[in-house]
Specification:
Length: 152
């Protein structure tokens, strides 16, 4: 039986990731609280204004490049998403302490809806349509809402 990891993400102001592993790993659930959100303008993508969002366990306040720090695990478990103003996702990296293969990139399964720009506040919903299999050994699933101030 292959090992499976399911990530369920729920964020209002505090985001939790619940890790569920298959019976071959004794069904030990592991939680990571992604309490921090950071978003910044990013280089345009196909002529459209773009942004990078980092959701992490540790604050990115002292980081010069929060996406770089998150990618290498310096902010604990994290989700990094690059998206356009219209809501098209063109980059996703997932780093979770429990993953055997971390970080990993995956674009197509993650979707963004209800994206709103209200002054310097950006909000929206990130989700997969059910569990997604990666590397034939792990599965992950996302369903979260975020609301954060744009960093300049």
């Amino acid at each position: 039986m292959r090992s499976g990891i399911v990530i369920n993400m729920l964020l209002t102001w505090i985001l939790a990731i619940t890790m569920l592993e298959s019976a071959t790993t004794n069904d030990n659930g592991k939680n990571a609280k992604l309490a921090y959100a950071w978003v910044s303008p990013y280089e345009s993508w196909q002529g459209e204004e773009a942004f990078i969002l980092v959701l992490s366990e540790k604050p990115a306040t002292d980081a010069k490049q929060p996406d770089f720090d998150a990618f290498f695990g310096n902010l604990g478990s994290a989700l990094i998403v690059k998206f356009t103003k219209s809501g098209d996702i063109f980059g996703t990296e997932v780093y979770h302490e429990s993953h055997e293969k971390k970080p990993f990139s995956s674009v197509r399964p993650l979707k963004l809806q209800d994206i709103k720009f209200e002054g310097d506040i950006i909000s929206g919903r990130l989700f997969t349509e059910g569990a997604v299999e990666s590397f034939d050994t792990e599965t992950w699933e996302v369903d979260l809402s975020f609301k954060t101030k744009l960093s300049k």
